Predict the structure.
Amino acid sequence: MSTAHTKGNQMTTNSKIAKIAGTTSMKSYREALNDAIREEMRRDPTVIVLGEEVSGGAGCDGQDDAYGGVFGVTKGLMPEFGRERVIDTPISEAAIIGAAAGAANNGLRPIAELMFFDFIGVSFDQIFNQAAKFRYMFGGKSKTPMVIRGTVGAGWRAGAQHSSMLHSVVTHIAGLKVVMPSNAYDAKGLMVQAIRDEDPVIFLEHKVMYNNECEVPDEQYAIPFGEAAFPRQGKDVTIVAISNMVTHAIAAADILAEEGITCDVIDPRTVSPLDDEAILESVEVTGRLVVVDEGNPRCGLASDIAGIVAEKGFHSLKAPIRTVTAPHTPVPFAPALEDAYVPNVDKVLAAVRDVLGA
Amino acid sequence: MPYQEEFLLRAYRSMKTIREFEERCIKEFMGGNVPGFVHASNGQEAIAVAACIDLSDSDIIGSTHRGHGHCIAKGCDVGGMMKEIMGRSSGLCKGKGGSMHIADIDKGMLGANAIVGGGPPLVNGAALAAKTLGTTNVALSFNGDGSANQGTTMEAMNMAVVLQLPHIFIYENNGYAEGTAANYGLGCDSLTDRNAGFGMPSECIDGNDFFATYEAIKVATQRARDGGGPTSIEAKCVRFDGHFIGDPQLYRGKDEIKNARKDQDCLKIFRDRVIKEGWLKAAAMNAIDKEIMVEIEKAVADGLAAPHPDPATDLLSDVYCSY
């Protein structure tokens, strides 16, 4: 545990969020999520966790809590809160999401885990036709305070059906909030907000980030949705990046800073709602925009943000907007192909140089 | 002798090839030569072989994430599989699929499937094509006990009955849905009883016994070819390795795997039976063992030497048939 009173987390240095007082500790993305869920469960008895192997070992002869989720995010919750509140389910994604949505309408605050977010396909009706629409189509009379967690993204050689970035699919759906933390500090604060939020929240964790560490306040704190973070400030180019792409954007900005080129790196943190004001204000200064997104390019978040800026910030632009995305293919398995598929620092650098005409 | 010697040798060779392939995959994964997530099927060889041994290339199977054994049993090239699992461009799917997505359409292998419950509706489609086109082909889906609880699987079973599709639903009940007990995830006592409720013949057999499994599937397959519709077969079996390679398997009981390898090894049971009955000689099987070791060794060496895909030409291709 560290009591050093520093800027806390590098990643959120210029966040609009007030700094959290008190002690901090180096925590991984995984531990930060675990902390957030555990403390909310202690605080609020209506918070439950359900999904496949969120504890693990149910009905088996060996150890209980054998997995704590396949990535260990919910490890230790079942021993503390019991199987009544940390519920291992059959492999039945539609039933998991439906149960969470129905329970959310009836007094609980479920955190449903989809494991790999690719499994959304099996449960999609319960998400987009049911949970997302309840409030609107029932005339504002119902609320569905639920969180759907899932791991997204390529990099693990997990193949086409375990590596997708489907955030644009859920961002397209009115009634869902979509959260994509890029570091442990944000992961904790956004998870707390997600659990306390009254609407269905899709919480997407990038699988290559679970071991990434930074200083995380020990106390609970909520990061409001729709407020971007500014991990780097600059005046030459605006780089908007989400989830693990923030890592590459920061690395590119640091390389360019040595050349005298300064980048305004914006991490929206939540893509629905989206802090478009922050992006537009930045482009007003820089006149140049690069959007970095691991998703497929068509009807994706990168083109959405580019569209907003083209529509509302056109007169600030000094160069065409550039997007850096995955190609329009499923995620390939072979390492040689997967490495070429995922946007990297070099591609961000090339795009920035391109908008600078350099 | 109720079985031809050639049939028995073929069955043994196929099962043993799966065993050695999986054991070697585990070793190569641990050695860093196999990337990603790999789910080994060692221990469950008898079911794959019993189900596929009489099928032709125009009969279709759909597999699961634990699909290596089904591929081998259906006649997929072991060298092409190893290359695929290693992500090489000469793999069965050009390195684009990997362990969880191996397919070989020419062999009637519709694909491993990384979505639990993803396969049965597709296999219904293969069965529907056979019925509509008036062939006598059949389709088999391999399902885990975990898949049984997916809505997609139950919908597929019901529709197979409604449309009287030539679809044999094979449930490999290895006792674990990933790291959860099968009898925890299943609300009723018996999957076989539940599946009978869909309105199809439903049988439970010892999947460690190649012969019992073969006879049951043979009856089901013939019924399907004759227009008699779908069948459910639950084969009780043992998964020798984890849910995935590298799974610490904390959920398993002490000595459980050791005991299973001793008492419930389908290959040992097969060998003991054929020797005891006087159907095969140990020497004949030992000779096959040696050939298989050479074949697997070559598959690994060829795999490691095979070129990686080239992003410049391979990353963007194969998304569509035409652009």
User: Anything to note?
Assistant: The interface with chain B takes residues 52-53, 56-63, 66-67, 70, 88-95, 118-119, 121-122, 156-162, 327-330, 332-337, 339-341 of chain A (CB under 8 Å). The longest strand of chain A covers residues 109-116. The radius of gyration of chain A is 20 Å.
